[in-house]
Task: inverse folding
């Protein structure tokens, strides 16, 4: 995987949306279409746009960010980066508008999420971490009989950042901070190293992110290499959303 470079928004979307699509959680069938575009940009961009619209979790946020930025394309690279990683475009989205959109577009919003939005819509941000920690029900399920499952899903579904420490075939070892649950608060826990796929076996070894590279991970997949500034923004947005849901 080469150094961080400017890519088109459709490619960037494919890089981050492929993992849950592969697992059958979001988007249309045939995740291989996104994979091919994420790794080689071989699929016509209009087809990626059509597929992106079918991601009912991500697309409403992209539309909101694009509209607040003055009518940008929802798949503009800056818009896509804002949602998955974070950038200044998020600050233009009115939290009250976002909260209202969430209540309308996600009819199955849990009671805990509804209470948080009603009590403090100012913490609503059009970022993937907000969707994971507030809109999805898993944070509330941490207080249920099986918190380990909820914690695992939350940690995998958020965009994680970490540093590559080694390459082992189609996986790299990434050092980062997993989520931790102490029975009351959800936080970032002690540092650890985990194996994460960077390839499905059909990419040349030279494309692997090298040791020392900072990467973004989503489920069991390395989505992209990050600059230090991007990693800092992702960490800050994640910390803010963790703070918002903790007592």
Result:
């Amino acid at each position: 995987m080469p150094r961080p470079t400017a890519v088109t928004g459709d490619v960037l979307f494919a890089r981050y949306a492929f993992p849950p699509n592969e697992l059958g959680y979001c988007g249309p069938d045939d995740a291989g279409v996104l994979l091919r575009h994420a790794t080689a940009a071989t699929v016509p961009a209009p087809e990626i746009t059509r597929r992106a619209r079918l991601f009912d979790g991500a697309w409403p946020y992209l539309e909101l960010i694009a509209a607040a930025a003055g009518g940008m394309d929802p798949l503009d690279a800056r818009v896509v980066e804002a949602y998955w990683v974070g950038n200044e475009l998020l600050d233009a989205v009115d939290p009250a508008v976002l909260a209202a959109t969430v209540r309308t577009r996600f009819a199955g919003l849990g009671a805990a999420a509804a209470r948080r939005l009603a009590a403090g819509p100012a913490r609503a941000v059009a970022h993937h971490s907000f969707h994971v920690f507030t809109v999805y029900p898993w944070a509330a399920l941490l207080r249920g009989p099986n918190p380990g499952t909820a914690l695992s899903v939350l940690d995998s579904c958020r965009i994680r950042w970490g540093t590559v420490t080694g390459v082992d075939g189609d996986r790299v070892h990434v050092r980062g901070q997993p989520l931790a649950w102490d029975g009351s608060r959800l936080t970032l826990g002690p540092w650890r190293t985990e194996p994460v796929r960077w390839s499905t076996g059909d990419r040349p070894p030279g494309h692997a992110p090298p040791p020392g590279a900072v990467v973004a991970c989503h489920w069991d997949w390395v989505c992209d290499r990050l600059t230090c500034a991007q990693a800092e923004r992702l960490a800050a947005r994640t910390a803010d959303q963790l703070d918002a849901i903790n007592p």
Q: What stands out?
A: The chain has a mean pLDDT of 91.
